[in-house]
Amino acid sequence: MGAGTSPADPAPAGGAAESVREQSVQEESVQEESVQEESVREESDGGSTEQGGGSTGPDRAEPDSGSTAAEPGGEAPAPRRTRRFPLFTRDTARPEGGGRAAPRDAPAPARQWPLLTVLGAAGVGLLVVALDPFAEAFRIGTILIGVALIAGAVLRWVVPSVGMLAVRSRFTDLVTYGLMGTLIVLLALVAQPRPWLDVPILEDAVRFTIR
After folding, report:
1. What number is the average pLDDT over the span 180-196?
2. Contact 129, 141 (CB under 8 A)
3. DSSP string, 73-133
4. Residues 6-43: pLDDT tens digits?
5. What is the spatial distance between Cα 45 and Cα 32, in angstroms, rounded to a whole number?
6. Theoretical Cys-Cys bridge with 181: which of 48, 55, 112, 146, CB 3.0 to 4.6 Å?
7. Strands (E), the chain
8. How many CA atoms are closer than 13 Å to the CA of 26, on its beta-carbon side?
């Protein structure tokens, strides 16, 4: 039933009845929309409160007591601004230097040549280790893998945009690629038997461990 009408009142005739009926339907739809928006807002506020432990601090925005009240005339309230972090991450920022390594009109392999270079060198090293075509193939293939990672660190430092070779920040990628490549090369050089690099500290550590 619309506002201002009751069962006891006589129904208006003709176009007046249609206008009263349309007005009542519009008022009911506006009320339903306001109730739905208030319920959605309460659910979102409840989820964010549970995530944050239900405590309010200086960095948390206090809810405005008058912001959830419906505006006169039955219109839906305006969305409330908040300083809380969203519950779901919609996107991620591109890492520093993660742009194309070639212009947009270049083919896809050319745009990702730094990553393809590192993967190609590491793949050659794995192939040499797997096939073992000559003596010391295991050592040489492992060194190729380490050198590929070191080359990736050098490319990350020198080239402004390296495409998908950029995973994290520039400093983090430099440390990760360089450290892993250096450790792999050192392990390949000191591998037994007949190591190419003698480290007395490692021999003493092995003897102490065996004892």
Report:
1. 90
2. yes
3. TSPPPPPPP--SPPSS----PPPTT-S-SS-TTS-HHHHTHHHHHHHHHHHHHHHHHHH--
4. 444 544 445 556 666 677 767 777 777 777 777 767 66
5. 20
6. 146
7. none
8. 9
